[in-house]
Amino acid sequence: MQKRCASQIRNCKMPDFQIIVAGFVEKDGKILLVQEAEKKCYGKWNLPTGKLDQNETVEEGTIREVEEETGYRCSIRYLVGIYEYQKDGKHKFRMHYAMDVVSGKERSSSSEILAVKWFSKAEIDAMQASEFRNNSLKKMVEDYFNGQKHSKDIIQQVTQ
How far apart, in whole angstroms, are the C-alpha atoms of residue 97 and residue 76? Predict the structure, then answer.
């Protein structure tokens, strides 16, 4: 095994990664989607989605993002899936949770969101991929409606 000097180790660049959280909020067989107001994805539909704040758990971030984007305070039922991809030079992991509405009122719009709307699976199936912010959103919706479930306890919080 070849030895590396300390300067070589210090100069190693670890890949950037990002954890993104999203919620499947369902009511009467429909899921809640948000229409993006951000310039690069203006008018595209997406799950309520966002990035974690510093020192925030994945579940806390999911609950916060869903409430910020939709107006609904939700609780987490289970993990639907963890989706991995690379974009903008970053390695990204999208963690999607199934959620139940606990309280709140639907928000009509904000600086980040143009609209909030309930969609049936058939309505989503009829939409073109170009209508979504993420090309793989239909696959994620399919996983949800096909009953893909993982215990939310699969992610354990530990202290260091």
Answer: 7
**Coil, strand or helix at 10:** helix
Please give the model's pTM, rounded to 2 decimal places: 0.84
**Is the CB of residue 23 less than 8 Å from the CB of residue 65?**
yes
Per DSSP, which regions of 1-160 are E strands? 17-27, 30-36, 45-46, 49-51, 72-87, 90-104, 113-120
Q: For the chain, how many structural domains are there in total?
A: 1
Residue-number span of the structural domain to which 56 is assigned: 15-103+110-150
CATH of the domain at 70: 3.90.79.10
Within a domain: residue 50?
Answer: yes
pLDDT by position in tens, the chain (length 160): 455 544 455 555 666 888 999 999 999 999 999 999 999 899 999 999 999 998 899 999 999 999 999 999 999 999 999 998 888 888 889 999 999 999 999 887 678 899 999 999 999 999 998 999 988 888 999 999 999 999 888 887 776 6
**Closest Cα partner for 49 from 32, 27, 29?**
32
Q: ∠ at Cα 83 (65, 69), nearest 5°?
A: 15
